[in-house]
User: Which sequence fits this backbone?
């Protein structure tokens, strides 16, 4: 047994010392996973970040109120808002790096949020090619003004100050009619009474009120979403994607396959290399059996597949992938590794030279990957391609791994893909051993 | 013989219709160095492959191991194979591993571990004079260094029998000389060596006996001196005469004043001619060599 481990350690060492080989086993699958995850992320219901409207905001007022507005709009998930000076902001919109610029002019803070005052001036400069987003942006601005109003009306000092200024202006205005003067004066007195009430209320419930807007504020409307879509077939592409928890759920099992296929090609080539470079002669002359030599290779291939899956899973988890069941993932990985060890054994005997084995190996890998969902997920394929995919071990491997990551397979449901994989693995080991003995 | 450590009896191996080895029989005594000479395709590699148990012969048998030793039998048995170290003609090394890693790996396959493995690795590196490059990957080595390491790997487990298949192919004269010295050291230590080569001077320098095979058959097996006496033929005498004598019966071919003839006793023949008044301006006596023996036995036609 120790000689099998010696063989395996040597092969793993050689595999990872080959920089190009290591790239195809580790680097390439990561790139594939990230690439396809990013693309398919648009289809999935994952928790990825929403797309945002990139805008620049120019605060020429520089008051507490204008800063509050900037802060509030920056809290909006749909807007990526960056404070800038006027000229750089205009340049960034002109060059297309931002959709629009928002300018808060001087005096913004004096009236913003008091809806009985003259409306504050806000300028918007929009990229002409992005007019569609302009309307959305105006909506977000109005929403922010609403939030600002809500907060300002709870600020009794600011309100009182505003009422006092308004009373002074009323007294100074000689042209206003008596009726209007009486009406406005009554309104301001009512407001003053309301401010006093708010003050009293805030003093009484100071312990329970946590901050502005948390109970004492008001909303223009309470808007809730209702589902108006038809019931989605759980077996449809959309239905399946709805089960995913992150956009990496689909792309990472798919990308793992490329690492596994690279392992298979690498080890198949290494057996041919042992033959052509003469080291197989030494191995055959050493006091170990051919079976031990093959077991060493198989163990190294098995371990490398496990490493690929573990590494990709680790990276996926770091990015937001949350496997449904780790024990099921380990079981699936064992079956996948066993399957591809068998395939590797057969592949290593497909040619006499390293070049012929590598060439034929990658050709087979590509076909398996194309049919099995290594390039495009099987669920996106037309039905006849989905039928053909049954003949690819890659399909069953992806299904087994997905079953453990997001398809929420039970052990009974995992039995079929895992059984097929183990069956392929055993057949491959037997056939590969027989072919090697014959050669 | 009692002391034989390798005994090959009526060995036969065919690949389809082609008979690679045909009724081959020979023995190698313990501590002996036997040279195995033969043209390309003569059956040397097939013979070696059967000696190490890689191939099973169609007929005949191979017995490896001394009668007084612990293990004796068919080299297919891993315990018997442990007696043999082989340095194949193709460099059988992992080029992406270092010299030390190669030695450690093959040592572990032979069951070495711990201090014993460490000591053998150090000995092998010293033997191959690669101590300074022990941590370098083999792919950075020169051809000579790889050849030396190839032999060192064969010796990592202290075998009793060493099979060297063309161990000096493609090496510079310094490395070649070092390899010769190493093999001579191993001979002195009593290692049994089977040495295949195309270079006759190597066989003459290193081997106690030489076997010449062709078309899978044994053509001759003897000491160098024995082969020369049996198959070397006559010495070749050539020279330039001062003048062509008119009344002396000269042997061989005469072309103007140039003379060339074969003789079993060349010096006596030259003395007889001198006594008859023949005067030599230049004289060259070429004694029979192993190469002439080889060409006599295997023919001069090209082999591919």
Assistant:
């Amino acid at each position: 047994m120790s000689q099998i481990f010696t063989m395996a350690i040597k092969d793993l060492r050689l595999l990872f010392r080959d920089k190009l080989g290591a790239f195809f086993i580790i680097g390439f699958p990561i790139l594939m996973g990230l690439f396809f995850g990013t693309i398919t992320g648009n289809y999935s219901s994952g928790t990825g970040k929403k797309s945002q409207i990139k805008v620049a905001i120019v605060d020429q007022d520089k008051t507490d109120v204008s800063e509050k507005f900037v802060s509030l709009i920056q809290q909006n998930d749909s807007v990526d808002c960056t404070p800038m000076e006027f000229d750089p902001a205009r340049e960034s919109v002109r060059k297309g790096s931002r959709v629009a610029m928002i300018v808060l002019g001087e005096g913004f803070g004096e009236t913003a949020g008091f809806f009985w005052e003259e409306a504050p001036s806000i300028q918007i400069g929009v990229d002409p090619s992005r007019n569609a987003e302009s309307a959305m942006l105006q909506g977000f601005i109005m929403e922010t003004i609403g939030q600002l109003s809500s907060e300002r009306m709870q600020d009794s000092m600011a309100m009182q100050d505003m009422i006092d200024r308004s009373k002074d202006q009323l007294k100074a205005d000689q042209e206003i009619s008596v009726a209007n003067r009486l009406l406005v004066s009554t309104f301001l007195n009512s407001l003053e009474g309301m401010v006093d009430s708010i003050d009293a209320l805030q003093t009484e419930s100071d312990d329970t009120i946590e901050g502005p807007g948390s109970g004492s504020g008001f909303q223009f409307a309470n808007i809730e979403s209702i589902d108006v879509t038809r019931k989605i077939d759980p077996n449809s592409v959309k239905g399946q994607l709805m089960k995913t928890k992150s956009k990496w759920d689909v792309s990472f099992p798919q990308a793992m396959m490329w690492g596994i296929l690279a392992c298979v090609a690498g080890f198949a080539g290494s057996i041919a290399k042992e033959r052509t470079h003469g080291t197989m002669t030494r191995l055959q002359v050493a006091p170990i059996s051919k079976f031990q030599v093959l077991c060493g290779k198989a163990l190294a291939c098995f371990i490398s597949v496990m490493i690929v899956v573990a590494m990709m899973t680790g990276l996926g988890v770091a990015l937001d992938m949350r496997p449904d069941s780790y024990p099921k993932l380990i079981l699936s990985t064992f079956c996948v590794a066993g399957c591809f060890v068998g395939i590797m054994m057969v592949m290593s005997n497909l040619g006499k030279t390293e070049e012929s084995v590598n060439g034929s190996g990658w050709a087979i890998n590509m076909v398996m990957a194309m049919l099995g969902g290594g390039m495009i997920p099987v669920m996106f394929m037309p039905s006849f391609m989905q039928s053909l995919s049954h003949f690819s071990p890659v399909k069953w491997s992806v299904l087994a791994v997905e079953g453990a990551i997001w398809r929420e397979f039970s052990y009974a449901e995992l039995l079929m893909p895992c059984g097929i994989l183990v069956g392929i693995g055993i057949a491959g080991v037997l056939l590969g051993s027989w072919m090697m003995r014959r050669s | 013989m009692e002391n034989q450590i390798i005994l090959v009896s009526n060995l036969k191996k065919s690949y389809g219709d082609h008979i690679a080895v045909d009724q081959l029989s020979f023995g190698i005594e313990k501590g002996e160095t036997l040279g195995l000479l033969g043209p390309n395709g003569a059956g040397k590699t097939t013979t070696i492959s059967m000696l190490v148990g890689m191939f099973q012969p169609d007929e005949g048998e191979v017995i490896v191991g001394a009668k007084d030793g612990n293990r004796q039998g068919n080299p297919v048995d891993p315990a018997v194979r442990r007696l043999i170290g082989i340095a194949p003609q193709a460099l059988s090394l992992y080029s992406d591993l270092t010299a030390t890693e190669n030695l450690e790996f093959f040592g572990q396959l032979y069951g070495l571990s711990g201090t014993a493995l460490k000591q053998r690795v150090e000995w092998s590196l010293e033997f191959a004079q690669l101590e300074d490059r022990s941590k370098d990957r083999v792919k950075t080595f020169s051809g000579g260094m790889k050849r030396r390491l190839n032999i060192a790997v064969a010796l990592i487990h202290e075998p009793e029998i060493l099979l060297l298949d063309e161990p000096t192919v493609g090496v510079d004269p310094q490395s070649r000389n070092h390899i010769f010295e190493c093999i001579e050291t191993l001979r002195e230590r009593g290692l049994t060596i089977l040495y295949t080569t195309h270079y006759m001077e190597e066989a003459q320098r290193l081997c106690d006996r030489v076997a010449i095979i062709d078309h899978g058959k044994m053509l001759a097996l003897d000491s160098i001196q024995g082969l020369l006496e049996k198959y070397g033929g006559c010495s070749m005498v050539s020279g330039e005469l001062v003048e062509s004598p008119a009344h002396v019966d000269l042997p061989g071919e005469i072309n103007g004043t140039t003379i060339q003839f074969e003789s079993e006793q060349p010096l006596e023949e030259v003395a007889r001619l001198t006594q008859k008044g023949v005067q030599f301006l230049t004289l060259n006596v070429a004694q029979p060599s192993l190469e002439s023996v080889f060409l006599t036995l295997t023919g001069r036609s090209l082999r591919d």
